[in-house]
Amino acid sequence: DGVTEVLAHRSDNLRDKFVQVPCSGDYDSHKRFEGCTPRKCGRGVTDAIITREEAERIRRIAERGLSLGGSDGGASILDLHSGALSLGKHFVNLYRYFGDKIHDIFTEEDFALYRDVRQRIQQRIAQVFGISSASLYLTKPTFFSRMDSTEAKTTHDEYWHPHVDKVTYGSFDYTSLLYLSDYTQDFGGGRFVFLDADSNKTVEPRAGRVSFFTSGSENLHRVERVQWGTRFAITISFSCDPQHGIDDPRRR
Fold first, then answer.
1. What is the pLDDT of residues 231-241, one digit of tens each?
2. Is 173 exposed, middle or buried (0-12, 13-18, 19+ CB in 10 A)?
């Protein structure tokens, strides 16, 4: 992997760390939204907007939802918006599959916390990139992930390949990750790696830490394979295009 620099150690308590990088041309092949589409690109890390206690509560939402299913391989997904849940080698719709039982799994408070956390992350992204928070729209997919060292059974389990979010999901303009467990305490491996021409920059997950970045090729990235333990995170992404906006998930 060449030279690796650590952008954020697990032991750090970062208020605001931001590294600006030149924007790629990826945004030019999509409709531009003035005052929102990235002109300033980069990546940031903060431990100051979500508390560890809130991260623990959110992790419990993920654990309860994923306890209903789970992938046969090492990567399981739970999307509260669409209802997508890993089950064996496939996905099911949580809301259709489990029906009214879902009311026993998720509470109104769970969804209120989710909304609150999403809003804080959205405001921080807007502030750092100098855009209006109102110009950002939550977009899909936005999902919980649970990763462990189980061998991959399908391509969905192979989360470690380098990728660009804007290329994978055209709607993404700004991506964020909220970590819900601690590197070296809850799991080994599983660091987030930005793949730059000169060196790799890694973010070590820590419960409550938010990593966020512009979604184009300027932030090519991968996640290391988890070696032991279980890594929980939630990916929350934003689009500048209102047509790609989705509502917050709600209790059904």
1. 999 999 999 99
2. buried
